[in-house]
Amino acid sequence: MPHLRLAVLDVDGTLKQAESPYQFLHRRLGVAHLAAANRELALSGHISFAEWLRRDAALWAGQPAARLAEMLADNPFLPGATELLVALKQAGVIVALATAGFTLNTDPIVQQFGLDYCLANELTTVDGVLDGGSINHVPEGGKAAFACGLAARLSIPREQVLAAGDTGTDLELFQCAGVRCAVNPKMPALRAQADVVFEPDLRGAVAWLVGRGYLPAVDSK
Asked: For residue 103, what are the domain limits?
């Protein structure tokens, strides 16, 4: 079995415990009641994801970006997530994040672990303060386009690509990967298409990958 060369990972609910950084901040900032209507409209198909993003971001206008970053830092990693990221990087695997969240949430993870690529939406600021604007970098189908495009650009075959996620949108990532990991899957289809399911967290993920030859054995010396 060839070793992995590329891992494309969802963030929220997969690496981090909160399933949505949007809802996480809405609760912290006391605007969850205002955001609930946006969520209902989006999930029922009455507004697009881009419009949902725009409306949610508008609720945070006037907030210092640094304050939100501090709040997001309180959202812990799933047990085993940091060990997985470290093991992937130590093995020389290229690691990319792909999330419908936003860069204010992902940038610290990229910096902490020295990750290689990241696809995320963006909240706009003026002088370090959120102005209520947003940039939708992750349209519908965007995760698959990013992951498959990245693998093609790096000339990495599908069997050497790992994808991990927890929701239906992460089925897109599975299209591009030979190793498919579901983490606390939120829908039956994701569970059914996964090669492995990790519940309730990512403890054991490194051992599973090593045991199947996807990562080199760890030198215990």
From this structure: 6-21+73-211
CATH code (residue 86): 3.40.50.1000
Q: What is the pTM of this model?
A: 0.95
Q: Please count the structural domains in the chain.
A: 1
15 is written with which tokens? 């690496």
Residue 167 maps to a domain? yes
Q: What 3-state DSSP class applies to 4?
A: coil
> For residue 221, is pLDDT > 90?
no
Question: Residue 91, SS3?
Answer: coil
Q: Residue 126 corresponds to which amino acid?
A: V
pLDDT in tens, 87-141: 999 999 999 999 999 999 999 999 999 999 999 999 999 999 999 999 999 998 8
- The DSSP secondary structure of 123-180, one letter per residue, reads EEEETTEEEEEEE----TTHHHHHHHHHHHHTT--GGGEEEEESSGGGHHHHTT-SEE
Query: Which two structure tokens, joined as six digits, stand for 98?
Result: 């792909």
Whether 119 and 139 have beta carbons less than 8 Å apart is answered as no
Residue 217 falls inside a structural domain = no
Is residue 35 a part of any domain in this protein? no
Distance CA(201)–CA(212), nearest Å, equals 19
Distance of CA 135 to the CA centre of its chain: 17
Q: CA 61, 76, 190: angle at the middle one, nearest 5?
A: 95
Q: Is residue 44 part of a domain?
A: no
